[in-house]
Write a structure and sequence with these properties.
158 residues, alpha+beta, Jelly Rolls, Phage tail protein beta-alpha-beta fold, 6-stranded antiparallel β-sheet, 3-stranded mixed β-sheet, 3 helices, 18% helix
């Protein structure tokens, strides 16, 4: 979102309010993610969740618990946060299940797991313009995981 001094705005997501104070920021509030994250690119935003309030500085991120009872502010990886806008998947120490949630949303597919999948982390950048088979092939080359695509369903196997 980009700030317009003549038209300030607030974004309400579940129990959280993000207030435009002259800024550019990104919100990640998918229901299947463990926390809601607001990342400040430039300017200033105020995050309110329950009785908690935090004001972000550029380059920082606020993670709000699902209950809205806590706000954790930390430095953000802006390349990773803005990768979607630049047409990429960006992974840096990203667990496989987090990657598969992104793939599920982007390609509109369901993800199923067979067997015990190691808590493997991935790193790298992949263009979102690649077809799903190319993405899965790249992931298979880097770690001990395999995929089977069956229509709109991806089976993840050890």
């Amino acid at each position: 979102m980009v700030h317009d001094a003549l038209h300030p705005f607030k974004v309400k997501v579940r129990d959280q309010t993000i207030e435009d104070l002259g800024t550019q920021f990104n919100i990640n509030a998918y229901l299947d993610e463990p926390t809601m994250k607001t990342t400040l690119i430039n300017g200033k935003v105020k995050i309110s969740a329950g009785s908690q309030v935090a004001v972000l500085k550029p380059g920082f991120q606020a993670a709000v618990s699902p209950s809205g009872s806590s706000i954790i502010v930390q430095a953000a990886d802006l390349d990773q946060v803005m990768a979607w806008k630049n047409g990429n998947f960006e992974f840096e120490g990203t667990p496989l299940k987090d990657i598969m949630r992104q793939i599920s949303r982007w390609y509109d597919v369901d993800i199923s797991y067979m067997g015990t999948i190691e808590d493997t982390e991935f790193g790298g950048s992949i263009s979102r313009s690649k077809n799903i088979n190319e993405i899965l092939s790249m992931l298979e080359m880097t770690k001990s995981v395999r995929f089977k695509l069956d229509g709109r369903r991806i089976l993840v196997m050890p």
